[in-house]
Amino acid sequence: MQKDVNFLNDIKGKLIVSCQALPEEPLHSSFIMGRMAYAADLAGASGIRANSVEDIQEIKKTVDLPIIGIIKSVYDGYDVFITPTMNEIDALYNEGVDMIALDATARIRPDGTTIDEIFPEIREKYADQLFMADCATYEEAINAAQLGFDCVSTTLHGYTAYTKDTIKPNIDMTRKIVQDSSVPVIAEGGIWTPEQLKSLFEVGVHAAVVGSAITRPMEITQRFLQAINE
Question: What is the mean pLDDT of the chain?
Answer without folding.
Answer: 96
